[in-house]
Specification:
- This protein is mainly beta.
- It has one domain.
- The chain has a five-stranded mixed sheet with strand order 5-4-1-8-10, with helices on one face. A five-stranded mixed sheet has the order 3-2-6-7-9, with no helix packed on it.
């Protein structure tokens, strides 16, 4: 692997607003988390004011001049990578039971935005509403304009 094709770390921050509430249909303990491998992590109650998830992935330049994403939070095959937000019931002292997911597509991102986000002290930031048009937890495949992706200065302290 040469320096131009070496993997680079990339910090992703997902900022979700307008959560649907703790109860939806037959679900009484609605929570959302980001999926790492097959497990939802960093669960946030459905009635929170906002949900923020931060994690690291790796990026590698691809053959088309774009970027390929890798790591335990990244799903899908090359050229079709995405992240999952996982919705489920999380009763007190109970196990998480998933009932729907949202796919946050990475393959549609502008390579220049990704390169800018990979610069020192920057993050790749996704912003989206977490309630769908019918008042339920947001699911399905999400691409702009349903989600916005930007490169921004980090909010973390060094």
């Amino acid at each position: 692997m040469t320096a131009s094709t070496a993997k680079r770390p990339l910090r992703i921050r997902i900022e979700g607003v307008s959560l649907p509430g703790r109860t939806w249909g037959e679900h009484e303990h609605v929570h959302v988390g980001v999926q790492c491998r097959s497990d939802p992590v960093d669960l946030v109650p459905g009635d929170a004011a906002e949900a923020t998830f931060e994690f690291d992935v790796d990026i590698v330049p691809d053959d088309t001049g774009g970027w390929d994403f890798r790591g335990p939070y990244v799903h899908g095959k090359r050229g079709e990578r995405f992240l999952y937000l996982t919705w489920g019931d999380q009763p007190p002292d109970g196990e998480f039971a998933m009932f729907r997911r949202a796919k946050l597509h990475l393959s549609c991102l502008d390579p220049a935005v990704i390169a800018a986000a990979a610069a020192p002290a920057h993050d790749l930031v996704a912003r989206l509403a977490l309630t769908d048009t019918r008042g339920g937890p947001r699911c399905a495949s999400l691409r702009p304009p349903a989600i916005s992706w930007t490169a921004e200065a980090t909010t973390r302290f060094s």
